[in-house]
């Protein structure tokens, strides 16, 4: 059964997984892990495709991806689809080359985007399986990663979500990657636009819009609009709509890290769709998007639930995690964008000797626990104060001298 948006209230952070932040705070102050890092991501490159090589090389440098995580293949480029037999041969190569600790994939091309009846990103995650394809507009196999609290999908669910660094020209993909990097720890003050269009068949997600606005009140500013297009907006952090072709994208400004998609039949046919390709969102300035590669019919479960994507993003998840967790039946859908963008990841800085400032975003009111130990291995004991976190952005200051041992922050 599909879990409902009310499950936003489930605590989704694994409290025992900690890692020091890549900021100027001392490593003696530890924060919970909230999302994937460059060490968790492998990059797949087609060495027979010059653009793929260029994208992969730039992404490795921009994100400091370890050399061991770079996976090189060779196959004929310039096709929108792979046969299942060819894919299975390539998948075997990928599996052999993937370090065991890797949790997700970035794919350095736009073509091919499909494997027979599956999207490439889902085929990489699940392996080719016709259970993830429709039969007569029916349901498909569900994703165990849907709305999951997992911070390690390969370890917990035996799958590695994938996202395509997609574009038809290098400068487009370079700009996409740069936006993703710029998004990290940025806490953008953008707005979510949930749009109900005149196309009722493609606006089926609207039945959840009011509930989403209620669940995320005080977390993000949310506008629910009845229109075929928004124009002249310069604060777009989320844009979810339903239309075969979305007009006026050239009038919009997207915040770094923005997620945007349109529910339609073939938006995931990236380079040859008769409808609007999901690539148009990236070209307009979004950092990640989604579309289906074959006719899915308008099952909501085959498209992102906006509220779930927004909720996981608010927890500090990366774009690939937030988007993947929002789709219940992703077998026919392709995820595109910069996977590691984490605009709401918590950041810690030492503002003066012994004084720290924690910036943290929260989708719920909750208590912040600061614990101290004389050893990095613990045991950790809570200090007296437990500051309260409000919905949305928070700044918390606390004092800590290195000689006092180690601090661990939990929420």
Automatic annotation (TrEMBL):
Q: Which residues form the signal peptide?
A: 1-25
Keyword terms: Signal
Task: Specify the domain of life of the species encoding this protein.
Answer: Bacteria
| NCBIfam families assigned | TIGR03790 family protein (TIGR03790)
Q: Give the protein name, as stated in the record.
A: TIGR03790 family protein
């Amino acid at each position: 059964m599909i879990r409902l948006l009310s499950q936003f209230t489930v605590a989704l952070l694994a409290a025992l997984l900690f890692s020091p932040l890549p900021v100027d705070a001392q490593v003696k102050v530890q924060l919970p892990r909230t999302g994937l890092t460059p060490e968790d991501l492998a990059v797949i490159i087609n060495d027979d495709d010059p653009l793929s090589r260029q994208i992969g090389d730039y992404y490795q440098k921009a994100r400091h991806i370890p050399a061991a995580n770079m996976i090189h293949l060779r196959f004929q480029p310039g096709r929108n689809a792979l046969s299942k037999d060819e894919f299975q041969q390539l998948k075997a190569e990928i599996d052999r080359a993937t370090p065991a600790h890797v949790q997700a994939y970035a794919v350095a091309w736009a073509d091919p985007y499909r494997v027979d009846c599956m999207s490439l990103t889902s085929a990489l995650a699940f392996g080719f399986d016709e259970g993830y394809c429709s039969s007569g507009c029916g349901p498909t196999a569900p994703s165990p990663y849907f709305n999951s609290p997992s911070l390690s999908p390969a370890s917990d669910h035996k799958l590695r979500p994938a996202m395509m660094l997609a574009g038809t020209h290098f400068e487009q993909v370079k700009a996409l990657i740069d936006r993703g990097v710029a998004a990290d720890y940025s806490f953008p003050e953008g707005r979510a636009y949930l749009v109900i269009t005149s196309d009722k068949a493609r606006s089926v997600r609207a039945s959840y819009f009011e509930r989403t606005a209620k669940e995320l009140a005080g977390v993000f500013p949310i506008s629910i609009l009845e229109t075929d297009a928004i124009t002249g907006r310069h604060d777009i952090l989320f844009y979810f709509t339903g239309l075969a072709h979305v007009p006026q994208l050239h009038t919009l400004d997207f915040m770094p890290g923005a997620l945007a998609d349109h529910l339609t039949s073939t938006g995931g046919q990236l380079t040859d769709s008769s409808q609007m390709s999901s690539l148009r969102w990236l070209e307009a300035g979004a950092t990640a998007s989604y579309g289906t590669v074959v006719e899915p019919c308008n099952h909501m479960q085959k498209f992102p639930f906006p509220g779930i994507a927004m909720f996981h993003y608010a927890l500090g998840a990366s774009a690939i995690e937030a988007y993947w967790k929002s789709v219940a039946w992703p077998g026919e859908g392709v995820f595109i964008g910069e996977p590691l963008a984490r605009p709401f990841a918590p950041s810690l800085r030492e503002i003066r000797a012994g004084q720290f400032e924690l910036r943290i975003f929260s989708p719920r009111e909750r208590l912040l626990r600061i614990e101290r130990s004389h050893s990095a291995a613990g045991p950790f004991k809570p200090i007296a104060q437990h500051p309260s976190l409000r919905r949305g952005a928070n700044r918390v200051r606390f004092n800590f001298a290195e000689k006092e041992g180690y601090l661990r922050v939990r929420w």
